[in-house]
Amino acid sequence: MMTSDYGLEMKFCRLGEDIAVTDGCRIEGYASLFGITDQGGDVVMPGAYGKSLARMKTEGRTVRMLWQHDPAQPIGVWDEIVEDRRGLKVKGRLLTEVERGREAAALVTAGAIDGLSIGYRTVTAEKDAKGLRLLREVELWEVSLVTFPMLPEARFGAKGDSPEAIELRELAALFDQARRTVAGR
Asked: Where is the Prohead serine protease domain (predicted)?
């Protein structure tokens, strides 16, 4: 986790190997997952984004899609950001009409960029018995494409390929690998 001079905190999340940019650079997946400890010792709790998303909608504002948390480099738009049972689900488009958007699309397609990071301000948090910071409410400002992820479990998938389908394929691959390992003994 990093903190800017303005109190904005940033969390990094891994995009995953199944990332694809399709149909005019559409991407979707999870920018944050609930109940999972990230590398900074933070755990985002279910409902943490709800008030912020509702307030932004009421005010007609949107969460920004940035390149590496740089507010001078918007690279696309998030068409949909919602909380579900797993976390913060995002759907958006990289804008190839802007230079950095074209570069981001090329880097993502080639697998050179594999991370997402959320920029937010903590509203309510508490420490648990293990010393982890439980984020109960955050004000979400932006979701960036980044080089280094903080939460490897967050993933993007191709348009039409749900994150749940990616998760099931990965689980099946793990079982298959375990079966081959046991059979090879």
From this structure: 24-157
